Amino acid sequence: MKILLTGANGYIGMRLLPLLLDKGHEVLCCVRDAKRLSVDKETLSKIEIVEIDFLQTPQPDTLPQNIDVAYYLIHSMSSSTTDFDTKEEISARNFNTYVKQTQIKQVIYLSGIVNEKNLSKHLWSRKNVEETLYGADYALTVLRAGIIVGSGSSSFEIIRDLCEKLPVMITPKWVNTKTQPIGIRDVLTFLTSVLGDTRCYNKSYDISGPNVLTYKKMLLLYARMRGLPLFIYTLPIMTPKLSSYWLYFVTSTSFKLALNLVDSMRIPVIANDRRLEQMLGIQPMTYTRALELAFIKIEQNQVVSSWKDSMVSGRFEKNIQKHVKVPKHGCLRDYKKIKIKNPNQVMHNIWAIGGETGWYYGDWMWKIRGYIDKLIGGVGLRRGRTHPDKIFSGDALDFWRVLVADKENNRLLLFAEMKVPGEAWLEFDLDENNVLHQTATFRPRGLLGRLYWYTMVPFHYFIFDGMLQNIVKHTSKKATPVEASTGV
User: Which of 32, 65, 70, 173 gets the most CB atoms within 10 Å of its CB?
Assistant: First the structure.
């Protein structure tokens, strides 16, 4: 089959793609920016890519006519606290306009469980998108899921952050809301099993795991599995906004996502029927089994995708590629270079930077900068990185965004997503003479930007020099810097 995969660079899309390819399907990946599709060269050679922003006016003849099935995996909950529902409706309508020009037979939409009369804004928007998609000419199959548990999922990472960092929690009353989580593997099984199944045409199904749990119970079960002490005390007076700040400061979630999650967490999310699992012979795993499998992936460094790599986890939702060309005029720089003897090891060290590895020098200073960034509404350091030594363009890396990850040409370019009065880049470039160039570039915004830079210059002197030295430390103790400069 020829399959259109929207949201191909998202958490679900990245996991669904290899499964579709393994089944022999032709896959057309639909993304806003082709340069951000985080797949290896082998996968890239097996797929087609089309760039579409479903929030923009549809362009005719963008999609090929011979599409059989499409997966609709688009959502905007993380991008806004006010108008994400409008954006989701616009995206759905524009999607219908695009596929109307094709021979599409089925669309598979991953939605949320919407069985309560009083829905949160997020769940209401999911239901509204479902109704919009049902209004088109193709056959629609809707899979309604609650919390998805898997390595890299937003729900799992929030639970993980809370339990690993807080042995004692003072929580809002929504922790007593009931929900029915489902493992990511089961979600993918359902998504692939309904593909082309005419029994599922124009039908909506709840999909879930077997356990109905409160959020408090989910936290306690996680702590028990990890052998962590955990005491939870609930306060009825914590407002939604205070709850959102609590999630934002303790976990790696963005404030926008935290606010929308808290709004949804007050609504029970429980499946009403098991028709689909009976029809397809699928027996979903328990919550604790889903946790165990998530940690197996983490321990084996096989996390395929993470919600934190989504653009909405940072400051810039789109047009990030406009920063790929580092400016020269009106910028301040810290430039250093060093001759090395073992380029392979050095590039491995560079590709492992951030996350658990750290920044090779003054990690405590990086952490303080991360805490300050979080306090003023930035992303902080908690996003970490998805894989310990693999990087793709578009990945989140602590409070940086990867713009270029070109290992063949030995170049890594990062763009700062921490809050600064300007724009900042950090670049590593190894030339043909085995000289490693390290350049920090800052384009200040007004006088405040320049004051910020010159205030940081003493710290930059030690941090950037120490970082460069330690990156090459394991390859050659005799490596010596051949040039260093700081200035405009």
Answer: 70
Q: Look up residue 257 and give its two tokens.
A: 């996502």
CA distance 81 to 84: 7
Specify whether the CB–CB gap between 484 and 440 falls below 8 A.
Answer: no
Residues 211, 182: Cα–Cα separation, whole Å: 9
Measured at the CA of 146, the angle between CA 1 and CA 215, to 5 degrees, comes to: 150
404 pairs with which residues across the strands? 413
Residue 397: count other Cβ atoms within 10 Å of its Cβ. Answer: 24
C-alpha span between 24 and 59 (Å, rounded): 29
Coil/strand/helix, residue 454 = helix
Check residue 322 and give its pLDDT: 62
Which residues contact residue 352 at a Cβ distance below 8 angstroms, ignoring those fewer than 6 apart?
A: 388, 389
Asked if residues 168 and 143 have their Cβ atoms less than 8 Å apart, the reply is: no
Angle at 47 between CA 406 and CA 295, to 5 degrees: 70
Q: Retrieve residue 428's tokens.
A: 């590593």
Could you tell me the two tokens for 230? Answer: 């955990």
**Closest by Cα among 380, 316, 383 to 158:** 383
Separation in Å, CA 167 to CA 91, 149, 223, 292, 473: 42, 21, 9, 20, 38
Residue 246 token pair = 């609590």
Which residues of the chain fall below pLDDT 70? 76-82, 237-241, 246, 252, 254-255, 257, 260, 298-323, 382, 474-488
The end-to-end CA distance of the chain, in Å, is 55
Query: 339 forms bridges with which residues in the sheet?
Result: 435
Q: Tell which residue, 397, 374, 180, 186, has the closest CA to residue 281.
A: 186
The confidence score (pLDDT) of residue 427 equals 94
pLDDT of residue 239: 67
pTM attached to this predicted model: 0.73
Task: Specify the pLDDT at position 92.
Answer: 93
